[in-house]
Design brief:
Helices cover 0% and strands 50% of the residues. By secondary structure, the protein is mostly beta strands.
């Protein structure tokens, strides 16, 4: 069992930046960030394959968000720049031992979830 704790959410104006952090209680091969806005489905934002550091991004955040790892690969960060109003959502950290190719952005692929941290972007 892996426990995940997120931090770093908050309110920012459009164009601003935030950094989210996720601390895992144990090592897993895959760590990811998802987000869910009111009335919308949870969507994958970014994933990092821990052994190699390879990263994957949703098209909507490419070039603006960066996922990285640290602390013996038990910490995952999400650096968010050029934030837009549409980025407003609850952001969740997720982890899984195995992710099949092409499905990293599906919530069903992940075994462990954090409690979420709110990100609000105002115009």
């Amino acid at each position: 069992q892996v426990q995940l704790v997120e931090s770093g959410g908050g309110s920012v104006q459009a164009g601003g930046s935030l950094r989210l952090s996720c601390l895992a209680s144990g090592y897993t091969n895959n760590m990811a960030w998802f987000r869910q806005a009111p009335g919308k489905e949870r969507e994958g934002v970014a994933r990092i394959y821990t052994p190699s550091g390879r990263t994957y991004y949703a098209d909507s955040v490419k070039g603006r968000f960066t996922i990285s790892q640290a602390n013996a690969k038990k910490m995952a960060y999400l650096e968010m720049e050029s934030l837009q109003v549409e980025d407003t959502a609850m952001y969740y950290c997720a982890a899984a031992p195995v992710i099949y190719a092409g499905t990293w952005d599906r919530p069903s692929e992940y075994n462990y979830w954090g409690q979420g941290t709110q990100v609000t972007v105002s115009s």
